[in-house]
Amino acid sequence: MLEQHLDVRFTDVQVPGYGRVTTRTYNAMIPGPTLRVRAGDTLRLTQVNGLPPNPPHTGGHNTPHHPNSFNLHTHGMHVSPCGHADNVLRAFPPRTAEQAAAGEPEPRYVTTVHVPAGHPAGTYWYHPHLHGSIAEQIVGGMTGVIIVEGDIDEVPEIRAAADIVVCINELKLQDGRVPAFTSGGWVNGIPSTFTVNGTVNPTLRLRPGEVQRWRLVAATAFTALRLKAVSPDRAVLPLHQIAQDGVTLPRTVTPNPLELTMGNRADVLVQSHTPGRYELRSAGTPSPLMTIEVAGDPVEPPMRIPDLLPPGRPFLDEKDIANPDADREVLFHADQGVFTGAFPNAFRALGTHATPAADPSGDLTRDPAYGLFDPSYTNHTLQLGTVERWTVRTDETMHERGHPFHLHTNQVLLTHRNGKRLDPPVWHDTIDLPGGTPAASVTFLASYEDFTGRTIAHCHQLHHEDLGMMQTVDYVEPSRR
Fold it and tell me: What stretches in the chain show pLDDT beneath 50?
């Protein structure tokens, strides 16, 4: 049993390289504490809501609201979505104004997550996931890392390497605060400030010949990362990837760049033999995320990058698809100027199980309900023990509007991108669909295992989720015939 107290309130945090920030935090830290568990453990989190009362809200459920309520999502973990576990349909509200005036104690909420005995070892993360308040809270720094320890950590070359969390946060700050999410233009109107482990462009030191393991976490709400580590003369410090989204890869790969969409994680091994300075950079961000200084006495003999990795999750087989004639499809689509007010655009999840239109015979591009999240409607009923194929598409023409797809509770096996088969396929929990590519698609296999209950699938560009680009899924026991 790992027990952790998470105190959530507005705190003044010193962000090196930026200055003082007043924001919602876990335990007055950006990011919150790193949690380490092993398969078979239980994680028990007691969360105190010390935030002020929520401001009144008169809009619909698909506009931002209740910024001082939250819950907790263990992103990427294969755990129960029900009860007091990874249940993102719960709400942890603060005291009302009347309760605060009466001196009632700040409310406490408990999340208890039982990690299955066979859970993959790897890097995961936690963050609030209450619909309507997610984006504003995450861009204030309410995130943290979860590490499930296990077989990959016992590989001799990996065990010898320094184990370093590299949590990349994207903050939206104006005058040292996160402005309230009050309009559809809020995201683009404020430049992002990127931190690594709570610092703007920290320096990490590496000895020549040393191998370090970096647990890269894209704890970003709006920006996908295309990572390279390069020197001023463009020499590349290779990022040898050993895991994606918490699942060990079949073999070490060295992508250049390493692409992480919002919510992705990658474990990499890093080694340099030549003293010098490198910068971890992402395409499109003006400043380096982190500086790497290779200096000091060389490690003799040099440490090694492993050739062999323990087996990760076994691949699914298309022959096991439950019904080859009934693939699921999702289309991420935005219609402009549908609503009056500060949030005029409709961010829809369409496809084979879209939320019904308010007026099926009318103009669906103007419909106020079609394809938008409805908490009372179940979009996908998924039977345990079945394998299905999904295709997720986007017709987005705007480059700044990526639509990553995230399914809760079960990892998915990415087999095709834009119709082209991947060899080998790759396990993910969040899959990028970049903006500006209106024919982009991904195809994956999903096996629904172990846990029943209602949860969600959604776009992980999180202001799109808050505005309705989300669907309800219900994992159910197999039907009896």
Answer: 481
